[in-house]
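Pipeline run #58 for the internal structure catalog. This entry was flagged by the ingest filter as a single-chain record with no existing model, so it goes straight to prediction. Upstream metadata was stripped on purpose; only the residue string is passed forward. Reviewer on rotation: M.T. Logging verbosity set to normal.
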Amino acid sequence: MISEDQEVNCSQGPFKFRRRYIFYGLSILYLVGDIYWFGGPLKSRIDETLKGNRIDAEQLAIREEIVATVNAHPIRRHDLERATEEYCRKNGILLSEISRSRINAIRLLVLNQLVIDRLIWFHSYHYPVELSQGEIDDALIRFRRGFKSSEEFEQAALLQGFSVSRIDTFLQNQFMQRAWIEKTIRKHIIVSEKEIIERYESDKVIFMIPDRVNVKHIFFSTLDKDAEQVKENAQRIFQKLKKGQSFEELAIRFSEDSRNRDAGGNLGWLTRDRVPDDFYDNVIKISIGKTGAPFKTALGWHIVHVIGRMDSAKASLDLLHDEIAATIEVEKRQRAIEALINRIKSKAKIRYTGQFTWIE
C-alpha cells in the first residue's frame, strides 16, 4: 500500500519536473531576446567587448606599423616602403613626380606581391624541398657573378642596409622558394610531342621565317664628328673597293663597328626587325654579290656588300621543335603558377589593415 506521504511526493514529482524545464525555456528565451531582438544589457556588454578587441587590433596595427598579416605573420610598413622603392626603380618611376593616388595604387600592387611572396615562403618553409649544399652554393655564386668583385657585392649589400650574411640567407630562401614552386607545378608543365605538332600545324604565321639578307658592311660613325668629313672618308673607301681592294681587309682597317670589324664586317643574316628601317631599306636595293654606294642613316655612313638573300618561308618542325616546346612550357608555367597562387591564397588567412596608404 502507498502511504499519504508517498502520494504527495508522487503528485508533486511531475509538476516539479515540468516547472524546471519551463524555467530553462524562459531563461533561453530571455537570452535570445536580449541578444537578437531587444538589444538588452547582455547584448550591449558583448558589443562593447568586441568593439574593444577591434580597437585593440587597430591600435596594435598602427603602433607596430603593420600593413597586412598573412597567416598571422605581419608585413610591416618598412617592408612595403623598401619593396615600393625597388619596384619604382626597376620601372623607371620617380615617386616625387607622380600623384599621391598613383603612389598608393603602386603600394597596393606591391603589397599584394608581398602577400604572395609571404605565402610562398610559408609553404616552402613548412613543406621544404631537399637541396644539397652544392646546389645552394651554385645559386649564390651565380648571383655574385653579377658583381665585378666581392668588394662591390659587399658595398651594394651595405647600401641596401643588409649584411652579406643576411643577403646570403635571403638568397637561400629565394632559391628554396623557387625550388618549391618548381616541384609543385612540375607535373603541370610537361609538354608532349602531340602538343608541339599541333601548335606547329595550327600556327600559319608565327613560325614563318621572314625575308632575310646576308651582308657585310663598313661603318663610319658621325657621332661628335664633322658630317662632311665622314662622308668624304666613306666615299674614299668606296673608291678603293671599286678598284678591287678586299672588302674584309678594308673593314678590319676602317670600320668603326667594333662588334664585327674583326670578322671583316660580316653581319650575318638580317631580318627587318633586327635592324633600323633606314638601314634595311637601303640594303634591299643592293643586288646579290654587289657592293652598294655609301648611304647615310641616323647612326652614320655605311658601305654594304650583299652576300645572299632568302624569301620568307615556314621553318621546318625540326628547326622549330625546341622553340615551340619552350613557348608551350612558358604558357603552361604561367597558368600553373597563377593557379597555385590562387589556391594557396584561398586557403590562407590574409588581412589588410588599411595602413598601406598614407600622406607624404
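catalog note: Residues 67-206+317-360 form a domain with the Triger factor/SurA peptide-binding fold fold (CATH 1.10.4030.10).
catalog note: Strands lie at 66-70, 73-76, 208-209, 212-221, 266-271, 295-296, 300-310, 313-314, 350-352.
status: ready for reviewer M.T.
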